[in-house]
Backbone:
């Protein structure tokens, strides 16, 4: 946005948020792929009921779709300095964090790799939520 009377442009977008969104996109891809492979391993190596495996698979696919939508809206809102898409991304961040807690604590069989992956994802979500809230506040000023 250009300041009044031809002054220098003021940039309100957050570079740390944008970098964190890029890092999160890479890690979320790794998380979903690793969790999918772990789910296949659990069904083969343990007596993992197929009904629970199907539920875990459905929630994992939901997590992947929500993450893609969340990251797209977050990047769009940050780069265009629009609080609407960024606020929607913040709401989706909270939903994705709840799904990460499911994979950390509540799925039928939690391996140590699941715990590590989900904990790292929760840390990223927490950092992003803080930066999103600060960036939204900067946009509203």
Residues:
């Amino acid at each position: 946005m250009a300041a009044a009377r031809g002054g220098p442009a003021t940039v309100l977008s957050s570079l740390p948020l944008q970098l964190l969104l890029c890092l999160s996109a890479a890690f979320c891809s790794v998380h979903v792929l690793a969790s999918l492979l772990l789910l296949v391993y659990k069904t083969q190596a343990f007596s993992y009921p197929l009904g629970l495996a199907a539920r875990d698979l459905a929630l994992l696919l939901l997590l992947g779709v929500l993450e893609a939508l969340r990251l797209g809206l977050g990047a769009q809102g940050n780069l265009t300095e629009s609080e609407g898409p960024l606020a929607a991304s913040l709401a989706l961040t909270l939903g994705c964090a709840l799904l990460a807690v499911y994979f950390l604590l509540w799925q039928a069989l939690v391996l140590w790799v699941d715990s590590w992956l989900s904990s790292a994802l929760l840390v990223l979500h927490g950092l992003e939520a803080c930066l999103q809230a600060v960036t939204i506040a900067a946009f509203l000023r």
In short: Residues 15-45 form the longest helix (31 residues). The helical segments are 15-45, 50-80, 83-106, 112-140.
